[in-house]
Amino acid sequence: MRIKKFVGRSFKEALETVKRELGSDAIILSSKSVKSGPFGMLNKEAVEVTVALDENDGVSPEAPEAAPSSDMGDLLKEIKGLREEVCYLKETLRPIVPALRIGKDKKGLFNLLVRQGVDTQFAIILLERSQETLDSLKNSIKGDIKVQGLLPAEESGLIFLGPPGVGKTTTFSKVAHLFASKRKPFNLISLDADRIGSVANMKELSQQLRCPLRVVKRISDLPKILYKEMKKGALLIDTPGAQFSDILEDIHDIFPSGFPVKKCFLIDSSMSVPSALKSWQKCNVDMIDSIGFTKLDMATHYGGLYNISMLTSRPLSFITTGPGVPDDIRVPTSDFLAGLIVGGI
Ligand SMILES: Nc1nc2c(ncn2[C@@H]2O[C@H](COP(=O)(O)OP(=O)(O)O)[C@@H](O)[C@H]2O)c(=O)[nH]1
Ligand SMILES: [Mg+2]
Q1: What is the rounded distance in angstroms from the CA atom of residue 115 to the CA atom of residue 95?
Q2: What domain range includes position 242?
C-alpha cells in the first residue's frame, strides 16, 4: 500500500491529479485545507488530498482499471466511492461550516476553545495562527490580549463606568486603596449623589484613606472641581449606573477638547458575552480608554474574556476576583489570562 499526498487549488483539481497519476483505484484517505503559493510563499488557499494505492493495482495512468476480483475488491470500491462523496461534501460545506477548515491535528484544541466559550470564528483564526500545541495556542492568545494595568490612571485618575451592579463602587474603593498603598496623592469624586447609602460609604472611605471627597450632582459642575483638584493628584470618579451612556454624552459635550481622566468601562465576567456587549454598545465606545473585568470569581468559564477583549479592542486595566475591599483586585499578566481562557484556574 502506497500513501501519497496531492495538492490542488480545489478538491476537484487535486482529485484530477490523483486520477491522472494513480488511476481511479486510488483510495482517498483524507483531505484538508492548506496554504500554498509560489516561491514558497504560504498565501494561497489549497486542498491537500491524501490517497492510498495498493501496489498490486499498478500505478500507471494507462493501467487498465482492475475489475474487482472478489468481495474485498467490491468493498474497496464502495469505500472509495464513499470517501470521494464525503470529501466532495466537505468541500461544499466548507464555506458554511468554517470549522471544517480546522485539520484533525487541531480539532482537540478547537473543541477546547469552543467549550470555554471562545467564539467559533475567533477559535478558527487563533488556530490558524498557532501550532498544534497548547503552548502555541496560549502564545497566540497572549499576543491578542493587551493588559494596560493602572499605570496610566496613576497620573490623571480613572472614572468608572458601566451598568448598575457591575461593581463600579466596589472597584472604585479597591483602586483607592491601591493608590493609598502606593502613597499616590488622589481625590475621590462621586457622581452618585442621590443615594444616601452611597454617599455615606464614600465619606467613610475618604476618612479611612485620609483623602478628599467631593460629591457632585451634575457633570456640568465637574470642570471647575476637576481642574482645581487635579493639581493635587489623580482623581477617582464613581458614577451611578442607571444612565451610564448619558454620563459619557455629557462628558463629551462639557469637555469638547477631551476629558482629562481615563475612562474605564467595567464588564461583569459572569454575564453572557451578548449581554455584556449590549451594555458596551449602548454608550459612545470611542470615548472609552480601557476595560476592567469584574466578578471573575463568579464566572464558570473564561472564553468570553477573549471575545470581549477582541470585540471591544480596548486594553485591560484590572480584573476583580471577589467582593472584598481592598484585596480582590489584581492587574493580571496576559500569560495568566491566556491560561484562564484555555481552561486553567
Ligand atoms: N463576587 C463578586 N462580587 C462583586 C465583585 N465586585 C463587586 N461585587 C458585588 O456586586 C454588587 C454590586 O457592586 P457595586 O460596586 O455596588 O456595583 P455598582 O452598582 O456598579 O456600583 C455588590 O454586592 C458587590 O459586593 C467581584 O469582583 N466579585
Ligand atoms: Mg455604585
Answers
A1: 22
A2: 151-341
Distance 245 CA to ligand 1 centre (A): 20
pLDDT greater at residue 267 or residue 3: 267
Give the nearest ligand 1 atom to 173 CA. Answer: 15
Minimum-distance ligand to the CA of 299?
Answer: 1
Residue where one domain finishes, among candidates 63, 96, 129: 96
Please tell me the residue having the least CA distance from ligand 1 atom 3. Answer: 323
Ligand 1 contacts CB of residue 205 (under 6 A): no
Claim to verify: residue 181 and residue 330 sit in the same structural domain: yes
Instruction: Quick: pLDDT tens for 16-28.
Output: 888 888 887 778 8
Judgement on whether residues 12 and 108 belong to the same structural domain of the protein:
no
pLDDT at 202: 92
Residue 311: left if φ>0, alpha if ψ -120 to 50, beta else—which one? alpha
Cα angle for residues 239, 148, 129 (degrees, 5° grid): 125
pLDDT tens figures, 291-321:
999 999 999 999 999 999 999 999 999 999 9
With a cut of 50, say whether residue 39 has pLDDT above it. Answer: no
Query: Based on the domain organization, do 312 and 271 belong to the same domain?
Result: yes
The amino acid at residue 105 is D
For ligand 1, is residue 164 a contact (CB within 6 Å)?
Answer: yes
Q: What is the pTM of this model?
A: 0.76
